[in-house]
Amino acid sequence: MAPKIMLLITLSVASAVLVSTASPPFQERKAIVVLKGPGQVSGNVTFIQSNRGGPVTITGVVSGLTEGPHGFHVHEKGDVTNGCISTGSHFNPQGNKHGGPNDETRHAGDLGNIQADNTGVAQFSFSDPLISLVGAHNILGRAVVVHADTDDMGRGGFTDSLTTGHAGSRVACGVIGIL
């Protein structure tokens, strides 16, 4: 009888330890950025992460663009005191070369291009598995930048293709905050 009681006590203690050290359930996280530029470009983008370690869904509308694709990136600094130039480089915690959103090697902030229609409006919704609203790839407090030109995904052969995607000037930006 005593061995059974000891086994039950041991199992009870082990269960209590496992329950007390388990991570709290992940609550859906949301963020927003309001984009503004020196010209007519403006917009809003939301970020939603439903699962710890899961992808972030990015949904937005940007207006005032020229028709066509525009580089769309998370930059390392949430500083817009000198306009979009003070946001620094692409968010790149692992020191990788620039790439496209589906590339194995890329900056965490490389989100590819958004496509503006003939009225200058880009409406988009996509998911990204690398950025996060928690942990090492957390984008909260960083900036989103919309560029004037197409991001070549690091394949353009220009001197800046492997750092910026040769995406051109920064036409709008904003700091990512909690929603």
From TrEMBL:
<dbReference type="InterPro" id="IPR024134">
    <property type="entry name" value="SOD_Cu/Zn_/chaperone"/>
</dbReference>
<keyword id="KW-0732">Signal</keyword>
<dbReference type="Pfam" id="PF00080">
    <property type="entry name" value="Sod_Cu"/>
</dbReference>
<dbReference type="GO" id="GO:0004784">
    <property type="term" value="F:superoxide dismutase activity"/>
</dbReference>
<keyword id="KW-0186">Copper</keyword>
<protein>
    <recommendedName>
        <fullName>Superoxide dismutase [Cu-Zn]</fullName>
        <ecNumber>1.15.1.1</ecNumber>
    </recommendedName>
</protein>
<dbReference type="InterPro" id="IPR001424">
    <property type="entry name" value="SOD_Cu_Zn_dom"/>
</dbReference>
<dbReference type="InterPro" id="IPR036423">
    <property type="entry name" value="SOD-like_Cu/Zn_dom_sf"/>
</dbReference>
<comment type="similarity">
    <text>Belongs to the Cu-Zn superoxide dismutase family.</text>
</comment>
<keyword id="KW-0560">Oxidoreductase</keyword>
<comment type="function">
    <text>Destroys radicals which are normally produced within the cells and which are toxic to biological systems.</text>
</comment>
<keyword id="KW-0479">Metal-binding</keyword>
<feature type="domain" description="Superoxide dismutase copper/zinc binding">
    <location>
        <begin position="41"/>
        <end position="176"/>
    </location>
</feature>
<feature type="signal peptide">
    <location>
        <begin position="1"/>
        <end position="16"/>
    </location>
</feature>
<dbReference type="InterPro" id="IPR018152">
    <property type="entry name" value="SOD_Cu/Zn_BS"/>
</dbReference>
<dbReference type="GO" id="GO:0005507">
    <property type="term" value="F:copper ion binding"/>
</dbReference>
<keyword id="KW-0049">Antioxidant</keyword>
<keyword id="KW-0862">Zinc</keyword>
